[in-house]
Design a protein that fits this description.
Blueprint: E1 10-11, H1 17-28, H2 31-37, E2 54-61, H3 65-78, E3 82-89, H4 91-99, E4 106-108, H5 112-119, E5 129-141, E6 161-164, H6 169-181, E7 189-191, H7 194-202, E8 208-212, H8 213-219, E9 223-226, E10 235-242, H9 249-260, H10 262-270
Parallel strand pairs: 2-3, 2-4, 6-7, 6-8
Antiparallel strand pairs: 1-9, 4-10, 5-8, 5-9, 5-10
Helix pairs in contact: 1-3, 1-10, 4-5
Amino acid sequence: MTMTPRSARIRTTGIAGVALFAVLALAGCSSSTADQAAPTQTPAAGGVTPEIQGTVTVFAAASLTETFDALKLAFESANPGVEVVYNYGGSSALAEQIVQGAPVDVFAAASTATMTTVTDESLTAADPVNFATNTLEIAVPVGNPGKVTGLDDFADKDLAIAVCAVEVPCGAASAKIFAATDITPSVDTYEQDVKSVLTKVELGEADAGLVYVTDVKAAGDKVEGVEFPEAAYAVNDYPIATLADSTSPDAATAFVDFVLSDEGQAALSAAGFGTP
């Protein structure tokens, strides 16, 4: 049975990089946080603790872009011998690149299904750990010219609709919601990652798109968000893991620990992610 989403409300939200850095700074003031973020190290001769060094290549879901960019600055500041290099994209495409042999130290996916593509090939150094959750939200251009008020508007053939391709986590979540509500969407474009859907909306090339809550928040005043209750039908877990063939295993483990620390979790929460 189709649910009635007309009570959904339109909201405009924004997040400044300054606010996220402030969260990181405040969290960093906690000594317990520092203890959690720092990996266990063996003192060298003379009682000097060796510095973690190396380059950490992180393949991460596109929806993590803003938050992980902020975490990179905080992590590198705490670990000056480490450089973090990101490759953002659709989780399914990233997983396939890893399976094909791409040199990666850490994989952070937007769904357990895409992480399974990697674990099924025994490519992780340890079991993945869920570090965040995310749900979908409708993004519309500023002013909401299509007068979109809920999910049932996605069946309107007069509107330009953008969603993620079903192969990527945001598309799989969208398909799950449409199936649960018996809504047949009139989709004009299927995109390979959630940021591409968001761009279509920002440019006014789509009247509505399904993206994550965090993407609407990160876009600030470039889009407006329309919350819809049916989003509860699909909540995505975000797993993270180090890779077995990592060339910087100590630094990779330290980065994962940092994401899981109080400081990392505070940054994710500030960006709109839910707790695992």
